[in-house]
Task: structure prediction
Amino acid sequence: MPESPPHHETEPRVPVTQSPGFWAEVWSRFRKQKLAMTALLFVGLLAILGIFSPAIVGTKPIVCDYKGGLYFPAMGYFRESWENPIFITDGVIYNYPQKLKEKDPHSWAIWPLIYQDPLRRVRAGEIDGYSGNPIGMAGKPSRHNLFGTNDLGEDVFAKMIHGTRIALLIGFVSTGIAAVIGIAIGAIAGFFGGWVDWFLSRIIEVMMCIPTLVLILALISIIEKPTIWHLMVVIGAFGWTGIARLTRAEFLKLRQLEYVAAARALGFRWSRLMFRHILPNALAPVIVPITFGIAAAILLETTLGFLGIGAPDKTSWGRLLNEGKENLQMWWLIVFPGTAIFLTVLAYNLIGEGIQQSTDPTLKASKH
Result:
């Protein structure tokens, strides 16, 4: 009987799919939360308003050609020194529409969408057919002043749009400083342990016993001319204790795991163990208090502005509330900035809650 040819049975190949990383799963779960995504989009809208505020509302041209040169006067809203001195020496700075043509008939300019200024009153004659911003109780919301004006005739809508930049900066910069300090101290304490942990833990406890608001008021009073940057540094330099404690706890837990022991056995240096192996895995739960800290920093700056203390920035939402407190009949000075503060703080809290649910390892298991 002839031998049958050998039968080669080929098994079907199963395609190997790479599992998504931790942060990809976090983002996938975060996107399914409608409230958190709506809050994230709202914060993104605030960022756009803050970055492009000079192009949205202002009395300075976004770009203009003047005496043969190309200038960007609206950048002066970000920093006064960024506005070319030629406009000050030529007396153009407080009435660009008329003075530009008067000083240079061949000049041209691209203007913001709304002609109002966050720092001064628009006077009669600046806009054709407009008698200037009303003052006091006459400054109710209108076609020319969407959110009304304050006692000095300054447009509230312009202050709100430009104040968005202050709200975002105070949150991100101060919380960024606090995060760097808190993560560094917490990581060192949790990684090395022993007397290092004991010493740093006592420092954290002492800092927690000092009322932040009282400390900020004391330090701000020492500074002769406080700016918003001083306030950011002070809030960040004394608001890191919660982040440090959480980071310390994560490092104490993670340094006992097998993969860290294996890395130690391979002879990796402590810096690589700390920053390459432990820190990335400790960041997930730390991001949540950082997000809540941004909301707390905005609320703290608003509180200082409402009390009339701290950096004298005229576009701060807290300063607008302070003006409304002194003029209770001018309801628009309270309603509009108060609503903006409420929605912004709520948005950051919703984002923090969404991140907390997305990074919770028990959440995925509970759905099965």
User: Anything to note?
Assistant: Residues 150 and 305 are 16 Å apart (CA to CA). The chain has two domains: 60-111, 156-363.
